[in-house]
Amino acid sequence: MQHFKTLSAYMDYLELPRPEHPMLSVFSASEGGFLPCPKESSPPITNDCYSISLKKIVKGSLTYGRTKYDFTNGAMIFLAPRQVLQWDNSAVFEQKGFSINFHEDFLKGTELAHQIKKYGFFSYSANEALHLSPKEEKQIESIVGNIEIEYHNNQDEFSKDIIISQLSTLLKYANRFYERQFLHRKELSNSLLEQFNLQVSSYFESGQLQENGIPSIEHIANQMSVSQRYLSDTLKKETGKTTTEHLQLRLIDEAKNRLLQPNKSIAEVAYELGFEYPPYFSRLFKKKEGISPTAYREKYSMN
């Protein structure tokens, strides 16, 4: 897999204009114009840059894999360094918006270098983009306008600090708008929880618990075709519980059924549920239910 260590090498590969700053590039659609489009297709690649872009498709469609996504109203996509990128030539489009790319070293020595790692949306997939309202779009574009002014100005001792400050403000607004999106997309959240539970049930019923152990959240998210971070953030906002807590609840529910089978020991139930160490199963069960597996069996067994 090809990896690009510098922003200039990455821009050259995309067949986009070289950046005016060695670690920062800013593209925006001029009045009546369109964003420059990268090369038509690419095998999987990685780079050392962050990317923040607003996509507004004017003509054509944007395709990731076999799925087409609607970006006509303006949607923001965030990419972190070393994320795998790949696209094909199945779509030809004209787009408005902006694209900001900056090397991770551009943030070195700044507070944003630490803050940016806390923004989970850099781990989201394209279909988990931030969809902006017209008002939100104007707010974001205003901040990008400030960045663009500094980017095209003659660089001085204040330029980097001003750009970093504006990037920090942009990310804070994005975080606020994602919070709004989580709150207003209850139907999507419910759908994700339903899909999550179906995937866990399928894993249990297929006998993979004993064979492969407790599934990882990453495995479940991959089966659902969503990113692990987005799944966790969405369920946390909607239900108050993390994906790990939802998985543990499903394990405990399954444990209750198996504990009431009199011919199985507590250790056997633990191993069947994918727990490598039965004492850990017993501690988790007691933490969630308030009583030990043995006490539960004694209390609810019909025998």
TrEMBL record:
Domain of life per record: Bacteria
Query: Which GO molecular function terms does the record list?
Result: DNA-binding transcription factor activity; sequence-specific DNA binding
Please give the InterPro entries that the UniProt record associates with this protein: Homeodomain-like_sf (IPR009057), HTH_AraC (IPR018060), Tscrpt_reg_AraC-type_HTH (IPR020449)
Q: Where does the HTH araC/xylS-type domain start and stop, copy by copy?
A: 198-299
| Keyword tags | DNA-binding, Transcription, Transcription regulation
Q: Which PANTHER family match?
A: ARAC-FAMILY TRANSCRIPTIONAL REGULATOR (PTHR43280), TRANSCRIPTIONAL REGULATORY PROTEIN (PTHR43280:SF32)
Q: What is this protein called?
A: Transcriptional regulator, AraC family
State the organism named in the record: Pseudozobellia thermophila
